């Protein structure tokens, strides 16, 4: 077989393959639900109900989407410039660590200074953590996929050390857990009495900001040019190395914000299970959004709905909640194939 | 016990070879894929799936070697998925690989929960036992270290020799290497680059999967969710460290494993009392990054690695 580019894809060409990809994803999930002894329709119904069925469920979905918007943006920004940042998980924890260091009472600042300070420090921590692999890539040509992946393991061990040592809560009854943030360092709820914090609004603002950077600034243009063809971008006078490093700072910073938002908005303290893999799920979010920053918001809501819904479904019937992870991984693989088929025709030799 | 005593003890080297064994299988698998021009980031998930598939097959009543075969087949199926997406369709090998790792891992955990819904601790199997090779195992130091291992370890070394033999001494190996260096030349010879690359990814993934199964069938006797724990990513670094050559990659795996065995032992010495244990656990990952940095200056990378081949364009 051979792939032949389509000069001007018809509307059907653009819509049918992605729609089939989503259908295939649900078909896989339905089969797996059957294997586990569940009725697929009941399972999907329970997932939908668990994600949107009540005010509580809806807020839970929005809260769960928040870190995914941040990490999804982090990945989307990086992948658009072909910087393969698989280390958003570590960058998230770096942001969380800085938030805890500054926000547990060491500084007697009022809330309106404390929160921006924590957020900026979290961004800086995440950014610096990705700068190392980015420099290794630009200076020595070391593949950043492997270095960022390995940094995830290293940094999580570092967090584990911090939580058993310097950052351990003295009142924590021996659990590896940090002290709680002071109230000045906590992101308040958007509406009193509703369990949704300002981190969600911050995430939406971040998506808007990335969209503006992508479409309205030189950097946004340069990042795309480097991603499409670094060599050609270099010939055109774009400082490729500097663009890659700026991309790394932006990407790492966004992932760091995820850590700030989770600790300051939701959990109030740092533990080793702060993130159940938001950094990795961000890859799925970014790919489903076709790396578009506003699409990331939609994709994050979709992904969060599946996770929250599957959790509640799995408590009701005996289908393991890992079905959510399978759905997302297969959605990712089906979708990249579908996107290709919107642009290419398959020909037999 | 100081450093010198550790390095001269047979038990230390026996442990190093044991720790190296799963890495040898998986590194060889990744090396075959990359030699044909395909970076296989599905390795971590394929190892998880292999560890589970081999173990559950033995738990269900198959003999140990049957478990190895089931693991191999599982890996090959996952490799087929990777190769369809990455070779004829030429999709981003980064995205396909990460996606496959997520898929294989979640499918494994799902299956585990479906098969064993109520267990708090996973059942144990009777794993491969060490087999002392007559005469050779009586040698001082080398005997207990090299020749008192489980059969699966010996299989790993035999596989390494076979891989080197096939890659460098057969037309098939030449075709695989050429597919990763100069696919147009392969196509000009009337060979199918697509078939060669797909075959390499499928076989390589089978090896990775056996590497995972080593953990459940030989190193331990049960399956845990986090048991692969980044070994796949380390193997990717080992391929680079071994300059894409099977012999060097095996030496790299043993060196790496020796270091891992050393950090475990150092934790129990005076140093371990002062330095937090997390620092020791970090060392293998740092070592992998260091290996990548050191080797980065040598340009021995297959020229067409990560470059999709589409016969239409030239």
What topology emerges from the helices and strands here?
The complex is a heterodimer of chains A (349) and B (314).
Chain A: E1 2-5, H1 11-35, H2 40-52, H3 55-80, H4 88-103, H5 111-140, H6 144-164, H7 198-216, H8 218-228, H9 230-235, H10 240-267, H11 278-288, H12 293-316, H13 323-343, E2 344-347
Antiparallel strand pairs in A: 1-2
Helix pairs in contact in A: 1-2, 1-13, 2-3, 2-12, 3-7, 3-10, 3-11, 3-12, 4-5, 4-6, 4-10, 4-11, 5-10, 7-8, 7-10, 7-12, 8-10, 11-12, 11-13, 12-13
Chain B: H1 3-7, H2 10-35, H3 43-59, H4 64-86, H5 93-115, H6 142-146, H7 151-169, H8 171-181, H9 183-188, H10 193-219, H11 231-241, H12 246-266, H13 270-274, H14 277-295
Helix pairs in contact in B: 2-7, 2-10, 2-11, 2-12, 3-4, 3-5, 3-10, 3-11, 4-5, 4-10, 7-8, 8-10, 11-12, 11-14, 12-14
Structure commentary:
The complex is a heterodimer of chains A (349) and B (314). Chain A is built from 13 helices and two strands, in the order E-H-H-H-H-H-H-H-H-H-H-H-H-H-E. Chain A is mainly α and 349 residues long. In chain A, strands 1-2 form a two-stranded antiparallel ribbon. The mean pLDDT of chain A is 93. By secondary structure, chain B is mostly helical. Chain B has one domain (3-109, 140-295): Orthogonal Bundle (ABC transporter involved in vitamin B12 uptake, BtuC). In chain B, helix 2 packs antiparallel against helix 12, helix 4 packs antiparallel against helix 5 and helix 12 packs antiparallel against helix 14 (277-295). The longest helix of chain B is centred in the middle third of the chain and has 27 residues, at 193-219. Chain B is globular. The model of chain B has no long low-confidence stretch (mean pLDDT 91). The interface between A and B is large, with 47 and 48 residues.
